[in-house]
Amino acid sequence: MFNVLKSMIYVAFALLVASPGWLLAAPVADTLAPTITTPVISISDGDLLGLQNQLNILKQQVSQASNYTQLESSQGLVQVLIQNIDRQSTSLLPGQEQLQAQLNVLGPVPHDENGLVTSAITAQRDALGEQKNKIDSQIKTLAALKASAAELITQIASIRRTLLEAEVTQQTNSILHPRFWSPLFDFPADDRRRFHSVMQQLEATHQAAWQPGQRMFTATLLILSLAIWTVGRPLANRGLAWLCFHRMPEGRLRRSSLALASVMATVLTAGAALQLLHFAATRQLPYTPLLAELTQYLEKLAYTCVLITGLSRALLSTQHPSWRLPDISDPVALAMEPYSRLLASLLLVLVTLVQLSNVTGMSAEVVLFGRGIVALVAALVIGALLLRVSKTRREIIAAGEAPEGVTTFAGLIYTFAGIAVVVSLFALLIGYVTMARFITYEMVWIFIIFAGFYLLTQVYQDTCDYLFSPRQAAGKAIKQLLGIGNPRLEQICTVLSGAGRAILLLIGVIALFVGGVGTTLGQLVTNTVAILGGDGLRKLNIVPDNLVNAVLALVIGIYLIRSLRRWLDSEFLPKTEMDPGMCASLSTLFANIGYVSVVLLTLSSLGIKWTNLAWIVSALSVGIGFGLQEIVKNFISGLILLTERPVKVGDLISISGVEGDIRRINVRATEIQLADRSIMIVPNSHLISQNLRNVTLGGSAQGVVILELMFPLDIDPEQVQNLLYDTFTEHESILDKPVPFLRFSQLKPEGITLTITGYVGSPRTVGAIKSELLFEILKRLGAAGIELAKPPAA
């Protein structure tokens, strides 16, 4: 009775806790209904309409674009739109999952005892279903917008490629023709009017920034921006260099870190100065759409010029030659130094004017004139740089000094640059102005990519060498963590550094084709990820998060297997009653199964589905059929040896005329130690398929000592029999059971042959005991005056 009352109290208490609305006079079905209080995030119809309008405007801009440059900004805006769509879709996913989970909690539509549907739960299901349907609809709409935007990017790329081909292959006036220089002396009236319109817009923004009451603040911002670039850059460079000297170890890592710090100081200070200039100009009156498009491109151009000077300064290091990464002599570095600043300054001014003509829609003569001037100036500066380098090297050789070592790759770059300059100048002479401009732009972009990724590769290589050095604290910690030696640590360093450099090289090659002069870092990353995340990797479901998880699973799995195997070998297995051979077999079998499990776990962490690896299975089957069948056969034989254990570690075996002790059973082969302490490697399949003699199988095998002696015919057989028998029985190593015995083997004219046999405890001691018995028998025969039979004369 007491248990019944207690159960009723528990039920009542549970109902009170689950339904705090019991104080209200509501039906039981309504009080048990869950209450939804958590708000679900959704987006408004206005936001969806705004995204659709942005996409429509971009489509209209693309359809009205008349040149290659106008499409570049449109492509960047479409990529930004896709990012906004992804952000909106991601924000809706938690709400969708929450609503689905709540619907799953409610379950199917319930009925009361009379078969009627409960009104409260039905209302909640309808409310939740309505919210979920709305979010599902919004997600589908966003997916459709993203697909349409992705298709627009493909169309932009196709149109840009078509326009580029048309512009590059279009022949116009040569730079030697007077009509090419006509815009310089007779600027068209329409173009002059467009130029004045831009100047008026700039003047309006200028007047708003310098109006009374704002002049001091504007001047302060301009002075601060100039100070950041002129004074702040050297200070930032010194500060980062101080951190490198005090935080980085002495050696190659410090040198590459100093070069990277120099580039970072240049880019960061330039970015801060540009942001201040932009804020000073637009804080009172925003830019018009035309000026906004122009300033957006000019910002990209400014970063390009900053990278030219920053990378050149970091790699040449004329003020600190010991920091220089490439093998360039001091005279050559000093000769190259001024050309990077000169090229960056000229590009900043000339390309700004060209972009101004593109944005304002000036006539084709003005646009082509600007492109020709840019290509001519860039080709002349780069050509002068190459000629100066060649002259400096000749002067070094003439002075009897050894020039720096020129690698094959450096020679190819020098040759490629020279050919590109010649082709660009020749294109200008025959009237292919756009082609010449395209070649010079590509030369500048290739320099930025090569220099930047060369610097990143050096930093990565030096970091790996430092982290995995056995002389450094990091290397010692890794050795202790993984339980490995110096050779294995060097192998890990080589593999990781090689893989990292290969990935950087791949990204660099992709960046050469997906970017160009004026490409921002965000656009470069987006385009590179789009290529690396293509259909091939998407089918395998390989994403950065999965890569991190796979690496962690591989490292942790290997560490756990090695730790558990050491524990088995040193702690658990020695305390069992199993023989050492069985312990070694179990340890090896555990390690093999563990490594296979780690590989499977790593593939699972990558998100790879086995259905997508059919081509790998097909390749393996072909490889097994042609060249891997022996390896697979030995692997399977090794598993059979470890499970059935016809032989085990420590056994004395004889196979193919070779006798020795088994020291290790590996995955592919077995190590057999011979009597001379050498090791013979026998494939595992031979131990399974061939006749094998296991001398110590079962652990209770006995050794047999057999001696055959020939005596003359005139001996006393009984005396000799007693002498041999006593010698065997009196030896401490001869077993009492089985009892030694003597046989009359042969009778020949030369004499009689007697064979005596005795047993010892182990086959391994037969040789030594046999030698001792022979010495003792000869000694006793000599004392008894008995001689052995002499062999007949040949």
Describe this structure in words.
It comes from Pseudomonas synxantha. This is Small-conductance mechanosensitive channel. With 794 residues, the chain is α+β, with helices and mostly antiparallel strands. Among the domains are: 1-25, no CATH class; 33-168, Methane Monooxygenase Hydroxylase, Chain G, domain 1 (Up-down Bundle); 208-467, no CATH class; 703-784, Alpha-Beta Plaits (2-Layer Sandwich), CATH 3.30.70. Helix content is 70%, strand content 6%. The protein has 24 helices and eight strands. It has a five-stranded antiparallel sheet with strand order 4-3-2-1-5. A three-stranded antiparallel sheet has the order 6-8-7. A hairpin with a 3-residue loop joins strand 2 and strand 3. Helix 4 runs antiparallel to helix 5 and helix 14 (433-467) packs antiparallel against helix 16. It is elongated, with a radius of gyration of 43 Å. The model is unreliable at 1-38 and 534-541 (pLDDT under 50).
